[in-house]
Amino acid sequence: MELETVTNPPRLRRVLTIWDLVFYGIVLIQPIAPVGIFGIAQKISYGHVSTAVLAAMVAMALTATSYGRMAAVYPSAGSAYTYVSRGLNRYVGSLIGWAMVLDYLLIPIINVIYPALTFKRLFPAVPYAAWVVLVVGVIIFLNLRNVRFTARANEALLAVVCVVVAAFFFTAVRYLFHFQGWGGLISFEPFYSPKTFDFGALRTATSLAALTYIGFDGVTTLAEEVENPKRSVPVATVLVCLICGVLSTLEVYLGTRVWPNYNTFPNLETAFIDVCLRVGGVVLFQAMAVVLIVACFGSGLAGVAGAARLLYGMGRDNLLPRKFFARLDPKHNVPSLNALAIGVLTLIGALLISYERAAELLNFGAFLAFMGVNLTCIRQFCLRPEAGRSRNFFRDLFVPGLAFVFCFGIWWSLPRPAKWAGGVWFLAGIAYAAVRTRGFRSTPPQMDFADL
Questions:
Q1: Labelling 325: which of 334, 385, 393, 439 has CA 20 to 30 A away?
Q2: What is the spatial distance between Cα 279 and Cα 258, in angstroms, rounded to a whole number?
Q3: What pTM does this model have?
Q4: Longest CA–CA separation in the chain, Å
Q5: Which residues contact 434 (CB under 8 A, 6 or more apart)?
Q6: What percent of the chain has pLDDT over 70?
């Protein structure tokens, strides 16, 4: 028995199917993903949020193909950072890792701002800042005690979300058909209205609507446990984007038909729950608000935990001061100082940055990572194919090349404040890399995403 244990060490089993991956991806993205950006993107696009969500879906579906193919080659933690570092260039990979650090820091901020705004709508007498402090306090308190949302809790939450979304679909269709008939229910105007269509505005709205799909790449982290990963992972990542894209488009389409005048929303950032109030009354309004709050709490918990552990890994590997960032709380075995530091940053960010600006800055880093993965896919499969494998122009060059063009267009369309802030962050990253590599004369330090 001892000899068998030595010769056959434990390893991950390939038992997951495509649909296991798809379900996991939908849990990560959440069917209510477009709710937060609905009002803002509707105003930015002059009423064409449905088109923006569809355009973002195309870019994400194409990019998902690149992620899936790279995950089959490098089935390890780190996602875009790993793919670009190993498949393209270590220095470029370090900048992609720096972009991922930015995203890890922004995710908790976004998931504090939205529940605080929703609480403010439910209890308008209480100041927004008080809700921010409460939400941050609860999230940090739970993180310091090593509390996690388990997979079953996520599945239960997904079930509740699906029920609420289904209730919205039913009540919205009933509302439109009752007051306007088939003409109110079926219309091409949310996708193209000649009176208000503006291509530049649509590109800007698409750069925000892409937030709907952030998280699809989490599917690739399960590549080592999937049956036939070279086929299953690319197919599953694309299916996740398509399914979430169709659901999201239906949600914002119905929202646009129910409330076509985006200039009359009481609050742009919580506009979708006003749509729910119009079609389903107070019950649906409160149900959607509660679901949003709970979902954001879950994402906020995971976001703070991930960011704290990323800083811990960087401290452990001497990428940050080890004495502070690599310290674990002896009682709860968590990086408590890091969680507190993330809590302070989240509190400051949630009080100073709007939901819109935080989302745009998140997409700044995310789309740089997407572009990096698409370029890496071209080099891996078209410019440097493995021995015995012939090139396929369509799969190896055209698809990732088109994905890169889409992602670059969306990234370039981000508002100027996001590009300025992101540019400052990247300059800091380049300076940091220059110091760590003695003027780029040595290999850049590696970040470890394996424990997140």
A1: 439
A2: 8
A3: 0.83
A4: 76
A5: 440
A6: 88
